[in-house]
Amino acid sequence: MNIGEIAKRAGVSRSTVSYALSGKRPVAEATAKRINDVITELGYRPNASARALAEGRTRTLGLVIPPAGARLTGAQLGFVAGVVEAAAAHDLDVLVSPSGGGHDRSFERIVSGRRVDGVILMEILLDDPRVSRLEESGLPFVTIGHVEHPGASWWVDVDYAALIRRCVHHLADLGHEEVVLINRSPELVASGYGPAARSTAGFLEAAEQRGVRAHVVTCPDEPGAGFACFEDIRTRLPGVTGLVTINEAALPGLQRALHRAELEVPRDFSITGVIADHLAEDFHPPLTAADVPAGEMARLALELLLEQIGNPGATPRHALLMPAVTLRSSTGARRR
Amino acid sequence: MNIGEIAKRAGVSRSTVSYALSGKRPVAEATAKRINDVITELGYRPNASARALAEGRTRTLGLVIPPAGARLTGAQLGFVAGVVEAAAAHDLDVLVSPSGGGHDRSFERIVSGRRVDGVILMEILLDDPRVSRLEESGLPFVTIGHVEHPGASWWVDVDYAALIRRCVHHLADLGHEEVVLINRSPELVASGYGPAARSTAGFLEAAEQRGVRAHVVTCPDEPGAGFACFEDIRTRLPGVTGLVTINEAALPGLQRALHRAELEVPRDFSITGVIADHLAEDFHPPLTAADVPAGEMARLALELLLEQIGNPGATPRHALLMPAVTLRSSTGARRR
DNA sequence: CCTTCCGGTCGAACCGGTTCGATCCGCGCG
DNA sequence: CGCGCGGATCGAACCGGTTCGACCGGAAGG
Question: Which of A326, B221, B232, B315 is the S-S candidate for B249 at Cβ 3.0 to 4.6 Å?
Answer without folding.
Answer: B221
